[in-house]
């Protein structure tokens, strides 16, 4: 969230809303004059009730785009259907690999040579929406989950603002609910290979 604000994108940030009253991002945002709100999931009897209240809080700000950042709740299908093609999420893996939690530990256990982050459109299926952009980092000898997480976070801070810029510029073209393409972007002339000296 902080990286998105500091990217100074050409947009109005209408609110930062959290399900955790103690979330440090709320104070950070408020100190910068951004409206904040809390919809505590613990005060609702069900996921459906929480999602309905969260949706109402979001709709009060009439956003064109909803950005999930550090939001660790699984959203119900009803909530996602309420905001079709209006929610982006950042996930710390190269989806579809390692959906869900503990992505860095799982990547290391699997012995992958590259890891990274994915910005995707939120759909009812967890971490399964159309991919907008991915950033790749090498996995190096001696990596632990903490070191790998730090490297991936740096990539997240670059690719999430880029995905938002494309949305703001009207460059995201949807194919139903299964794919999204960036209009006007070409395929890169090279690709990352790790280790770099691979032949």
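Sequence proposed for the structure above (199 residues):
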């Amino acid at each position: 969230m902080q990286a998105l604000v500091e990217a100074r994108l050409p947009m109005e940030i209408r609110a930062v809303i959290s399900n955790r009253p103690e979330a440090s991002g709320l104070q950070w945002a408020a100190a910068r004059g951004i409206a904040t709100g809390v919809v505590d999931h613990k005060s609702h009897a069900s996921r459906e009730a929480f999602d309905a209240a969260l949706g109402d809080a979001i709709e009060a700000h009439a956003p064109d785009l909803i950005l999930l950042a550090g939001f660790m709740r699984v959203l119900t299908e009803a909530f996602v259907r309420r905001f079709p093609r209006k929610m982006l999420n950042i996930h710390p893996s190269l989806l579809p690999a390692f959906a869900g939690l503990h992505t860095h530990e799982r990547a290391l256990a699997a012995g992958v040579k590259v890891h990274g982050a994915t910005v995707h459109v939120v759909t009812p299926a967890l971490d399964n929406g159309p991919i907008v952009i991915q950033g790749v980092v090498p996995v190096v000898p001696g990596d632990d989950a903490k070191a790998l997480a730090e490297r991936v976070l740096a990539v997240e801070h670059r690719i999430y603002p880029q995905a938002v810029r494309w949305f703001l510029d009207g460059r995201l073209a949807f194919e139903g609910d299964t794919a999204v393409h960036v209009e006007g972007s070409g395929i890169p002339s090279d690709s990352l290979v790790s280790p770099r000296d691979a032949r």
